[in-house]
Design a protein that fits this description.
Blueprint (H helix, E strand, L loop, with lengths): L1 H21 L1 H5 L4 H25 L4 H7 L1 H29 L5 H19 L3 H22 L11 H19 L150 E3 L14 H5 L19 E2 L13 E9 L3 E8 L5 E8 L13 E8 L4 E5 L2 E5 L4 E6 L3 H16 L18 E10 L8 E8 L5 E8 L4 E8 L10 E3 L4 E11 L6 E11 L5 H27 L16
Antiparallel strand pairs: 1-3, 2-9, 3-4, 4-5, 5-6, 7-8, 8-9, 10-11, 10-16, 11-12, 12-13, 13-15, 14-15, 15-16
Pfam families: PH_FT_C, PH_FT_N
Length: 644
């Protein structure tokens, strides 16, 4: 224990010095100020968490907690030590090689070296890596503080939920230390072994633009570092062999092997020049880097582009949303056999019968973007059914597909186009399209936006205008992914209770659902919009799946909305219940019966409802008073109402 405390004091000082030396880069490199601020602030918060953990270690009762979570504490704290010390080593290595930065160019080079070298070492983005360490430390400090009766500020989560998160996070770190792939990603594909002549690696004929520097992705440096030669793209692959109308190659003719030109790996080609409107030429079939077949005809007719004015989007698509309701919610393209004969639940959410939820996130700086690599053909199978799609600013559309036969889930992100259903091939007007298996993504809420990330990079960002649509998409994504084959275990950011929501109440309920399996009933309040919701979830040792949710902000103000029937039963009237089971059904329940496992949980639940109702009524009276109050006359001007 003494060795851990000595190392803890040493790493805490290193983290403090790192935060101090990284903050000046924010002013020296203005175009990178966002990512520099995020990195420095994360390191600063890590230093604060380590200091809190050090204070808790000196508590006399800490030995009982350490005995229960000895291995998990060692794993999480040691991993954060390793990250901070490695970042400190990389920083001093770059400073010793390039010297103390004095100009804008030197600051840019050192910052680019730090981001690149750290990503090469960790295999992940520096910000994602540090935020994971910070999240692990905060959960650990919160759990130990609750056990020692020293809860930190804003610690609203129950200890058992924190314990599950800590063990799950320690398990992930142990797998990475042993060289195993992250859960949910599956085994990596073995490298392709080429035989015969040496061929250059394949080149994507439609390269995607580099990831935006705003969202934490390492920038592409326009310079070459010492010891590294400038990058030159390899020559394109030769066109495939000609095939006749029936798909069979023509008979082979004897060819003199000495006439075949050999590929010289030392021969470098000039860099690719940027494409401008003056040098664009039509792409012919069969040329290197061009399609080798005519695109297949559409399986479905192209739907016209929706009128953007009807969604209140008066700003250009490339600017951040400035008005509420900037997210488009488009109906589904095809209907699954499991829900044949009716509309999908997600489409019903945003029609005239949508819940009366007015909580808006207002202006947001999250610009919808897809960072996935461009794909000419998305490879959708005939059994892949589009469950729902969500449109956003920047002409971006996100679609969720589920395979009826295998239950596999794929996420498709497109930019441009008419927004209709298609076969998966590139369509006219589509500027960028990418697809990925949902089990390879983790979902995280950041303010009014959803971030979909792989273990190595940020894949897509999509913003939402209100709390209801964001919550439904968040849990619908988790519900679809949970039922997919090889589904990963949820990470800490995918919990039913996250940092963006205030945890108000939790209790166990029972019933006739799922063979009498218990559910956790929760009451949550959004910190941004103030909206209330209740949900039920199945919680196991390493898993947490939301079964249904209901938004109750407006209902709690109605007289007689909640009623106690017995010692363990209550009834809620007129509740619109959004279910995340296999059918994804939404329905209006006139009387929702809830049976608590313990009768002592009924009264606290009703008192919490009464407390939130009083807060809601006070807010409504305040707004009504402001609306009816007469406006004062301007200075120096008399009103005829009070003066003759």
């Amino acid at each position: 224990m003494s060795d851990l405390l000595r190392e803890l004091s040493k790493v805490t000082n290193i983290a403090k010095e790192l935060a101090d030396v990284l903050f000046p880069f924010r002013d020296a490199v203005p175009e990178s100020s966002i990512i520099v601020t995020d990195i420095a602030a994360t390191v600063f918060l890590i230093e604060k968490s380590l200091k809190k953990f050090s204070d808790l270690c000196y508590d006399p009762q800490y030995g009982a907690v350490d005995k229960r979570l000895h291995e998990e504490i060692r794993t999480i704290v040691t991993h954060s030590f390793r990250s901070v010390k490695e970042l400190d080593r990389i920083y001093h290595q770059c400073i010793s090689r390039r010297g103390t930065p004095v100009s804008l160019r030197s600051h840019k080079k050192i910052l680019g070296d730090i981001l690149t070298v750290f990503e090469d070492w960790s295999g992940s983005n520096i910000l994602i890596w540090l935020r994971r360490d910070l999240n692990n430390l905060e959960n650990l400090v919160s759990y130990i503080g609750l056990k020692l009766n020293k809860p930190p500020k804003n610690a609203t989560c129950d200890p058992e939920n924190l314990l599950r998160k800590i063990r799950s996070q320690a398990y992930d770190l142990e797998r990475e230390a042993q060289g195993s792939p992250p859960r949910g990603c599956g085994p990596t594909r073995p490298p392709l072994v080429r035989t015969g002549s040496v061929l250059p690696p394949p080149v994507n004929p439609y390269p995607s633009p580099p990831a935006s520097f705003q969202y934490g992705s390492a920038p592409m440096r326009p310079y070459s570092t010492p010891g590294r030669s400038a990058y030159h793209p390899p020559p394109p692959l030769p066109p495939p062999p000609y095939k006749n109308h029936y798909g069979h190659p023509p008979p082979q003719m004897p060819i003199n092997q000495h006439q075949i030109p050999r590929y010289d790996p030392n021969q470098l080609t000039p860099p690719i020049s940027p494409v401008t409107p003056t040098n664009i030429t039509p792409v012919m079939l069969g040329n290197p880097g061009s399609p080798h077949r005519v695109p297949a005809p559409r399986r479905y007719s192209q739907t016209p582009a929706p009128d953007r004015s009807q969604w209140g989007m008066s700003t250009p698509p490339g600017t951040p949303p400035m008005e509420p309701r900037t997210t488009r919610h488009i109906g589904v393209g095809r209907t699954s056999s499991a829900v044949k004969g009716r509309r999908e639940w997600f489409a019903q959410v945003f029609d005239n019968n949508r819940p009366n939820v007015r909580g808006s996130f207002g202006e947001t700086m999250q610009v919808p973007t897809c960072f996935g690599a461009h794909m000419d053909d998305l490879g959708l199978a005939p059994d892949d059914i589009e469950v729902f799609r969500v449109g956003a600013d920047n002409d971006l559309t996100l679609r969720m597909f589920r395979n009826d036969r295998t239950s596999a889930v794929r996420v498709v992100c497109t930019t441009g186009g008419a927004g209709g259903s298609w076969t998966g091939a590139s369509e006219p007007g589509v500027k960028h399209q990418s697809a990925i298996d949902a089990t390879s993504l983790s979902v995280e809420r950041v303010g009014g936006a959803i971030r979909l990330s792989t273990p190595r990079y940020l894949w897509a960002v999509i913003n939402f205008a209100d709390y209801a649509s964001l919550t439904l998409f968040f849990h619908a994504f988790l519900g679809l992914r949970h039922r997919a084959p090889n589904a990963p275990l949820p990470v800490s950011s995918e919990s039913c209770h996250n940092e963006e929501e205030e945890f108000l109440f939790a209790a166990k309920i029972t019933g006739d659902f799922d063979n009498g399996r218990e559910q956790n009933l929760r009451m949550l309040k959004d910190k941004t919009s103030g909206e209330l919701r209740i949900d039920a979830a199945f919680v196991s040792q390493y898993d947490e799946v939301t079964v249904w949710t209901a938004f109750i902000t407006e209902q709690i103000t109605e007289h007689g909305w909640i009623k106690k029937l017995s010692r363990r039963r209550i009834v809620l009237h007129n509740v619109r219940q959004f279910s995340f089971d296999d059918d994804f059904e939404t329905k209006m329940v006139p009387k929702l019966m809830i049976k608590f496992k313990n009768e002592e949980d009924v009264v606290p639940f009703m008192k919490m409802i009464e407390k939130q109702r009083d807060l809601r009524m006070d807010l409504m009276r305040k707004k009504e008073g402001q609306r009816r109050s007469p406006t004062a006359p301007p200075p120096g001007q008399r009103s005829s109402r009070y003066f003759p």
